[in-house]
Design a protein that fits this description.
The complex is a heterodimer. Chain A is an alpha/beta fold. Chain A folds into 2 domains: 194 residues, 4-Layer Sandwich (Metallo-beta-lactamase, Chain A), CATH 3.60.15; 127 residues, 3-Layer(aba) Sandwich (Rossmann fold). Chain A contains 9 helices and 19 strands. In chain A, the strands form 3 sheets. A 7-stranded mixed β-sheet of chain A has the order 7-8-9-10-11-18-19, with helices on one face. A 6-stranded mixed β-sheet of chain A has the order 1-2-3-4-5-6. In chain A, helix 3 crosses helix 4. The longest helix of chain A is centred in the middle third of the chain and has 14 residues. Chain B has 3 domains: 145 residues, DNA ligase, ATP-dependent, N-terminal domain (DNA ligase i, domain 1), CATH 1.10.3260.10; 202 residues, D-amino Acid Aminotransferase, Chain A, domain 1 (2-Layer Sandwich); 137 residues, Nucleic acid-binding proteins (OB fold (Dihydrolipoamide Acetyltransferase, E2P)), CATH 2.40.50.140. Chain B is globular and about 80 Å long. In chain B, helix 10 packs across helix 11. Chain B has 18 helices and 20 strands. In chain B, the strands form 4 sheets. In chain B, strands 3, 4, 5, 6, 7, 8 and 9 form a 7-stranded mixed β-sheet that branches. In chain B, strands 12, 13, 14, 15, 16, 17 and 20 form a 7-stranded antiparallel β-sheet that branches. A 4-stranded mixed β-sheet of chain B has the order 1-11-10-2, covered by helices on one side. By secondary structure, chain B is of the alpha+beta class. In chain B, a hairpin with a 7-residue loop joins strand 18 and strand 19. The chains are: A alpha/beta, B alpha+beta. The interface between A and B is large, with 37 and 34 residues.
Chain lengths: 348, 557
């Protein structure tokens, strides 16, 4: 039996990462016959594929966003479950990024490649923790692939938010947070810190947040902002998509404090650009220490680096004696800037 | 240090004055002595130690990180202190099982007191130890502090006001005793918390909180009797308090204070010898050449200078024009009526007998009509050749004592009408804080001859002057008439027949190579919305250039 070259198993193409021997694409950006999808963010999970293989949660999120007919056929797969596709086996492992997010291990003969999608190794009460998967080739994201991105404990950032609410009880606190994953994590962190008052939601947050609750994630009492009197919003916390926090929509709040929960808040210039008054460094992506620790721990001798700051991470791998190359995949971005809200939710 | 860093961090993002106050007061309440005292010192600029050079910081990080990774990071972040703070490697002892052995992070007091006495060779080692012990925000604040680059957009006055709030005191009271206080201000905080008597100011030349005037409205005149008031010119200079006092050994100490109590003596050493008699004069700082007061543009050459060269002193001779006397030798005159203080002032200035200090003349008037005429034409009403430096008249009640703050009905300022032009709204930008959902910062332009006929050239930016209702109207207009978007900036339609004309009021003009139009306005604000006017009828750049020529004559003179 001969060892296959990794690029014979997975190869970047215009449609996305293609597995020829398995007859599928991972997170394709164009409609394909068979798609295997890591998680529900819209730059990874698109509509219009013939067949989709993903976790139940990811399939549900796609259905919420795109409607019932988002794909020809769907198949749900559990973490740890193994499926044979053409000449390869595919196994899903938790990625710790958002609810239902997975790393996809593709094994052909005796070569194992892990496409990790987006991942984080930090604790998150709203999803299954990241699982380390030993492999030969590790495909890593590099969203925060610079050593200045070190995210610290998210619980401390939530304490900062609560301290501000205590100091300004007459003002409303508006937390910009990406509506799939980040918002629910911030709510869960607030509950974990003992905050038990109702938390308010922008209309675009409601569907996905209620979905999280339906999957057994405890988020406490949630209320829509819509229909709440301005005065009653004093001293409250509201979660909203980042774009809404500088929108006319904010005028319904009494003297709002604008917070933003994102890994980008680590860098002052980025926070200032957005007119943020209370930056909260809370990220659903691995930070620099997380990326480098994970890469080392997989035992992979070859690292493919995609979307983000590839240069720095590739350089780091090389200084550690690992083979590394940037994988030029287009179409994946910082979801905080590109995400479209879940369908059916108008501005409210 | 971490808690102080947290405060600084929050202050850098908070746009609102009152919210800044709350944050600082909250810090003073929460943090004990002596840390909060050193924090107050840092915020008021009262800390002094030799600053570290950026090169030292670079060396520290270079010894600990990969140069390629540092380069990429610095490129991305754009600020040395911040880059170093973020990528400083975690020290070995901070990790894992040994964490109970890690030294506690330094307090602000540790940092400040150590830096005061630390030798130059010991600095790098000490700094590295601190950086090991602090978190990201703590490291950032430490590096900003030691490199002397702590710019967080709050004034000394605001920090003192926050301290006053802690004890429910008037900030004026703190200003009064401030010159006699020193970090970490244990006596001040003890007083503010009701644990001790008010500290006594032993400064021989203390600051006295200044009295300010209200802007007069047309409707105010009906209820005022001209006979109750004395009028003076309002000079377009810098309000100062010049204080001279004898110390225990009989030596004269001289201090110049800004209207907020900031000691600005160092910027005007040429005025110090003239203040040779003990007393406290309220007056206007001006540049006077050959007996003629120069415009504010000329005076500006002397402001905010760290180094005052002999050439600067010679070319821009500084002058004090006195209008009130608050103290005469040992005597506090502030309780006396203004008319009486004015008489004492005249005697005092005569006794000083110095060419650099003169009396601000009064403007005689019998009726409001007469004063209106004088204000409209200061040159023929006594100001003579100095008329260009007159920005209006001041009205002071004859019987008014000298009261701190802005007491009602005592002093009025009646400014000359500002310059006015009609300009066209070109770009709008979202504001900050309360205004973050509004397009509230406006760039406006006037017509000029371009390559393809008339075009608009931007001449300034304004973000106030309008009412809340007008803001809503402009915001709506901007949103409906956007032609392009660039991040927070919107291009607003500006064509001869489509667009919004803004009446812009401003105080003066300066030539500016930084602006495409070549001119910069002083204190521009939106005075009216001209919905009625088509953009083609807005003003032209030539109008501004004519105004500029009139002002330029003075600068070159």
């Amino acid at each position: 039996m001969t060892t296959m070259r990794p690029q014979d198993i997975l190869l970047p193409t215009a449609a996305g990462l293609c597995c020829k021997p398995g007859g599928f694409h991972i997170d394709p950006i164009r409609p394909v016959e068979r798609a295997v999808i890591t998680h529900g963010h819209s730059d990874h999970a698109r509509a219009g594929h013939g067949a989709v293989l993903a976790t139940q949660e990811t399939l549900d999120m796609m259905r919420l966003r795109y409607g019932e007919n988002f794909a020809g056929t769907t198949q749900a797969i559990r973490y740890g479950e193994e499926i044979r596709l053409g000449g390869v086996t595919v196994k899903f492992h938790p990625a710790g990024h958002v609810l239902g997010s997975a790393q996809i291990a593709v094994t052909c003969k005796d070569t194992c490649i892990v496409a990790s999608g987006d991942y984080k190794d930090a604790p998150d009460p709203t999803c299954t923790p990241f699982e380390l998967v030993p492999c030969d080739v590790f495909i890593t994201e590099a969203t925060f692939g610079l050593p200045v991105f070190r995210h610290g404990d998210a619980a401390d950032e939530v304490k900062k938010l609560l301290a501000s609410v205590a100091l300004f009880p007459e003002r409303a606190h508006l937390v910009g947070a990406y509506s799939l994953g980040k918002a629910q994590r911030v709510i869960a962190l607030l509950r974990g810190a003992g905050y038990d008052a109702p938390i308010y939601l922008h209309g675009a947050m409601e569907t996905i947040t209620h979905y999280y609750q339906s999957r057994g994630i405890a988020l406490g009492e949630l209320r829509p902002v819509k229909g709440t009197k301005k005065a009653d919003l004093a001293g409250t916390i509201t979660l909203a998509p980042p774009s809404a926090t500088s929108d006319i929509w904010t005028r319904r709040f009494p003297d709002p404090v604008t917070a933003f929960a994102s890994g980008w808040m680590r860098v002052r210039a980025r926070a200032r650009q957005g007119g943020v008054e209370l930056p909260l460094v809370i990220s659903d992506h691995a930070d620099w220490d997380g990326l480098t620790a994970t890469i080392a721990a997989t035992g992979a001798g070859e690292i493919w680096v995609t979307h983000g700051q590839e240069d720095a991470l590739v350089h780091w791998c090389k200084t550690k004696g690992l083979q590394a190359q940037p994988l030029d995949l287009v179409g994946y971005g910082d979801e905080e800037e590109s995400e479209t809200p879940i369908a059916g939710e108008a501005e409210a | 240090m971490n808690r102080f860093a947290e405060l600084l961090d929050r202050l850098t993002y908070e746009p609102g004055r009152n919210n800044k106050l709350r944050l600082i007061t909250g810090y003073f309440r929460e943090v004990g002595d002596p840390d909060r005292g050193y924090a107050l010192a840092a915020l008021t600029g009262a800390l002094s130690f030799k600053h570290a050079k950026p090169g030292l910081i670079r060396d520290l990080i270079a010894a600990r990180t990969d140069p390629v990774l540092f380069g990429l990071s610095y490129d991305y972040v754009g600020d040395l202190s911040e880059t170093v703070a973020l990528m400083w490697p975690k020290s070995a002892i901070k990790d894992g099982s040994q964490s109970h052995n890690k030294p506690p992070p330094p307090t602000l007091t540790d940092v400040v007191t150590t830096l005061r006495t630390l030798g130059k060779t010991e600095l790098p080692g000490q700094l590295a130890r601190w950086l090991d012990e602090l978190d990201e925000t703590g490291r950032w604040a430490l590096l900003k502090l030691v490199t002397g680059a702590l710019r967080i957009g709050i004034s000394a006055r605001l920090a003192k006001t926050a301290a006053a709030t802690l004890g429910d005191k008037d900030p004026h009271e703190i200003e009064l005793i401030w010159p006699g206080l020193a970090p970490p201000y244990l006596d001040l905080f003890a007083w503010l918390e009701g644990r001790a008597e008010k500290p006594v100011n032993r400064d021989p030349a203390p600051f006295r909180p200044v009295m300010l005037a209200h802007a007069i409205e047309d409707s105010d005149f009906q209820s005022l009797d001209p006979a109750d008031y004395i009028a003076e010119w309002k000079w377009d200079g810098i309000r100062v308090q010049a204080v001279a006092g004898r110390d225990d050994r009989g030596h004269i100490t001289v201090r110049l204070y800004s209207r907020t109590g900031e000691d600005i003596t160092g910027s005007f050493p040429d005025l110090v010898p003239s203040l040779h008699l003990p007393g406290a004069v309220d007056g206007e700082l001006l540049v006077v050449r050959d007996g003629r007061v120069q415009s504010f543009n000329v005076l500006q050459q002397r402001l905010n200078r760290k180094v005052v060269s002999p050439k600067l002193i010679k070319d821009f001779p500084i002058h004090l024009r006195a209008y009130d006397l608050l103290g005469d030798d040992e005597n506090d005159l502030r309780e006396l009526p203004f008319a009486e203080r004015r008489e004492r002032l005249e005697t005092f200035i005569k006794k000083l007998g110095d060419v650099r200090i003169d009396l601000s003349p009064t403007v005689p008037f019998e009726s409001w009509d007469a004063l209106t005429a004088a204000r409209a034409d200061p040159a023929s009403a006594g100001a003579g050749e100095d008329a260009e430096a007159v920005e209006g008249v001041m009205l002071k009640r004859r019987d008014a004592p000298y009261l701190p703050g802005r007491p009602k009905g005592q002093w009025w300022k009646w400014k000359r009408d500002p310059h006015i032009i009609d300009a066209v709204l070109m770009y709008a930008q979202r504001g900050h804080g309360k205004r973050s959902s509004y397009y509230s910062d406006y760039t406006f332009g006037v017509w000029t001859q371009g390559n393809d006929g008339d075009e608009l050239v931007p001449v300034g930016k304004a973000y106030f002057g309008f009412t809340d209702e007008e803001l809503l109207e402009i915001d709506r207009f901007v949103r409906r008439n956007t032609t392009e978007k660039f991040g927070p900036v919107r291009h607003v339609v500006h064509e001869p027949d489509k667009g919004l004309v803004l009446e812009v009021a401003f105080e003066g003009l300066q030539r500016s190579p930084r602006h495409k139009s070549g001119v910069a306005m002083r204190f521009p604000r939106i005075s009216r919305l001209r919905w009625d006017k088509p953009p083609r009828e807005a003003d032209r750049l030539e109008t501004l250039e004519r105004m500029l020529k009139a002002e330029a004559v003075e600068i070159e003179a």
